[in-house]
Amino acid sequence: MSHITVCARFRPLSSKERRDHGDSVSVQSLDSETFIFKDEKEEDFTFSFDRVFYQGSEQVDVYEFLALPIVRDAVNAINGTIITYGQTGAGKTYSMEGPSILECDQQKKGLLPRVVDGLFQCIKSSDEATKYTIKLSMVEIYMEKVRDLFDLLKDNIQIKESKVHGILLSGVTEVSILDSTEALHSLSRGIANRAVGETQMNMASSRSHCVYIFTVQQEFPKDKRIRTGKLILVDLAGSEKVEKTGAEGKLLDEAKTINKSLSALGNVINALTCSPQGRANHIPYRDSKLTRILQDALGGNSRTALLCCCSPSPSNASESLSTLRFGARAKHIKASPRVSHNDDKYTKKHGTQSPSKDGSCERIL
Ligand code: ADP
Ligand code: MG
Q: The Kinesin motor domain covers which part of the protein (predicted)?
C-alpha cells in the first residue's frame, strides 16, 4: 500500500515579479521536504510534502522522483496518474511538456517526453518474449465537454465504466506508438489541435484540462494472457479565483466551470479523507468530468502523483497558499494499486484483482 505522492514545485521568479518585488520570495526552504511559506500578511505556514522542488530544480529531478516509479509500474500493468495543479503561469505546462514538446535541449525536457522515453526503456529491458503495445489518446475537458485532440469532430466524448477496464472514454481515438520519436510527433499533433481550438473557441489552454492517456498492453505468448496498465497525465486548468481575474461574460462562465471541476476534485479528495474510518461512504466522482476520468486514479487502483506548481513571489502568495493547501489535503489519500488483468479467463480465476469501483483509500491517522 502506498500514499499518493504529493510534491511542490516553485518556478524561478518571472521578470515581472522581479520588477514588482525584486528578489524577495515567500518560500524559505528547511530541507528537501519541508519549507516555510509566508502569506500576504507575513504569517508563516510550514508545509511538508514528499519532495519540494525549489526554484533551481531540474526537470530530470522532478521526473525521477515523481514519475519514474509510476512509469515502471505502468509497464507492469499498474495504473498511474500524474497531475499538475496550480494557478495559471505557475509552471504546470513547463513541468509537463518542457518549453515545447519537441524540445531539443535534454536538460529542459518535461515529464511527457521523459515518460515516453522511460516507457520504451522499461520495455526494452523487460522479458523479450512478452509483447508490448502502447497506445496514446489525448483529450481536453473544456466547459465540461470532453474533446478528442486527435479527432476534433469528436467533441463530446462520453465517459463509461467497465468492471474489467475501469473508466473508459467511449470512441476516443487511440494512436499506436512504436517508438519515442513517433510518440513525440503524436503528442505534438494533439497539442497543436489544442491550439486550433483556442483560436476557434477563443480560449487559452489554461482554461481547459488536458489529459494524456497511455495504454500499455502486455501479451504473454505462453498462455496468451493479456494485461494492461494505464498511465494518465493531467495538465489542469489554472486554479486562480474568479474574483481576482476580473473575468466577465464567457470568461466568467469558463472560470466558474474550472472552479467547479477543481472544487469537485477537492471534494473527492475530502471525501476520501474526511471520516475517521478513512473515507465517506459516497465519493462524488460524478460531480465533474475531471473527477470521473480520474476516478480510478484517486480511488485506489492507481499510483498517483500530484505536482503542486507555485510562483515563489509575494505577489502570488495567496494563490500559492491555496495550491499548497490543496496539496496538503491530497497527501491524506492512501492508494492501493493492483495489477489490472483484462483477460476474461484470468479475471474469473483471480476475481478479486479487477479494478474495484470505489478503490481502497484510507486516511493516515
Ligand atoms: P502554467 O502552465 O501553469 O500556466 P507555464 O508552465 O506556462 O505555466 O509557465 C509560465 C512561464 O514560466 C513560462 O514562460 C515558463 O517557461 C516559465 N517557467 C515555468 N516553470 C519554469 C521552470 N521550472 N523553470 C524555468 N521557467 C519556468
Ligand atoms: Mg499551461
A: 3-333
The model's pTM? 0.90
For residues 94 and 88, is the Cβ–Cβ distance under 8 A?
Answer: no
Give the contacts of 237 (CB within 8 A, at least 6 positions apart): 206, 207, 208, 209, 258, 261, 262
Running along the chain, 365 residues long, what does each successive block of 10 average in pLDDT? 80 95 95 95 94 97 97 91 94 96 92 97 87 96 95 96 88 96 96 77 77 94 89 93 70 87 87 64 91 82 90 96 93 70 39 28 24
C-alpha cell at 190: 494533439
Residue 58 per-residue DSSP state: -
Which residue's alpha carbon is nearest to atom 10 within ligand 1? 89
The bound ligand whose nearest atom lies closest to the alpha carbon of 240 is 1
Residue nearest to atom 23 of ligand 1 (CA): 11
Closest CA to 212 of 86, 114, 300, 99: 114
* Atom 15 of ligand 1, nearest CA residue: 94
90 is annotated as contributing to ligand binding: yes
Helix (H, G, I), strand (E, B) or coil at 74: helix
Name the pairing type of β-strands 303-310 and 131-142: unpaired
Q: Where are the beta strands (DSSP E) in 194-321?
A: 209-220, 225-235, 303-310
Which helix (H) or strand (E) segment holds residue 177: the answer is strand 175-177
Please state the ipTM of this predicted complex: 0.99
The pairing of strands 5-10 and 303-310 is parallel
Distances (CA, A) of 273 to 16, 58, 268, 361: 39, 32, 9, 8
Residue 34 annotated in ligand binding: no
How many other CB atoms are found less than 10 A from the CB of residue 350?
A: 12
Is the CB–ligand 1 distance for residue 327 below 6 Å? no
